[in-house]
Design goal:
This protein has about 210 residues and is of the alpha/beta class. The chain has 4 helices and 9 strands, in the order βαβαααβββββββ.
Length: about 210
Amino acid sequence: MSISTDLVVIGAGPGGYAAAFYAADRGLKVALIDPELNPGGVCVYRGCIPSKALLHVAKLLDEASHASAWGVTFGDPKIDVNKLRTFKDNVVKQLTSGTGQLAKARKITYIRGWATITSPTSLDVAKEEGGTEQVEAAGIRLRQGGLVTLDERDSSCCYARQDKVWVADPAGNRWEVYTVLGDIEEDDHHDAAAACCTPVAGESPACCA
């Protein structure tokens, strides 16, 4: 199966879904790719939000331990770990279901899976439910966090800096991949009709040296 879109955003954390929402609100046809059930990323699923939910409970316990100084005395707390975990999971579920509805309202194509860039304007998505989907896009935006994952089956390598990622193929060609075309946020405009990858002569990424 193959789809065609104006912009594909890889990674649906706060940076990814915000970029996808911004583009969709301005009339672009957008695909958003992430392995999770709904947009949210590490922050909502495993980082900030779960931590804050548990810290809220910890704060209540701490305040209860000092409440006798205010004239209120509690008995020793009993912690039900399973209920505590359920509380945390429900907070995450409520927030991520909300971002999922916001994506649907903007008619964003949300694909659960892992993306591999196969050409300057296309990528393959290994879907969570099985199978592969091909996506053609005028622009590709990387919002996968701080790590660029490389296919260990070949000799390619790349490194990221700001809004670009450089990829070197086994033949030694170096490609400069713009993570945004058509200017979604920045003042530095790129031609949305241009290829998002261009070879850079005479240079090699440090990781290939």
